[in-house]
User: Fold this.
Amino acid sequence: MLFIGASAGNIIGPHLYTPEEAPRYYRGIRSNLALFVVIILLVGVGAVYITYLNKRHARERERLGKSAYVVDLSMAKSSKLASEEEGGAINDGKAAGGVGDKAFDDVTDLKNEDFIYVL
Assistant:
């Protein structure tokens, strides 16, 4: 989607700035401002949706008797050090309490209750 949006913008953009509107380019500037507002709104909606999905997965983990709180240490330098600092269950495939059991199963992120989205 990002590639398609960027390509469409590259095609449409030059047509919004015409020499007849120089030096103010009202149509181009209004269009850019409107698209920036749309991007900000889409990022906000995406963040709210990701938070909702994380909460839904936490409820599902609790229902299955797992820890609701999962710490993603995939980018940590030392998973042992980070796990001692953070506390809670670890989502690295070696966690206690059953978290990470589906790490290599052939399921989508939406169906894998151990999957968390990182904001």
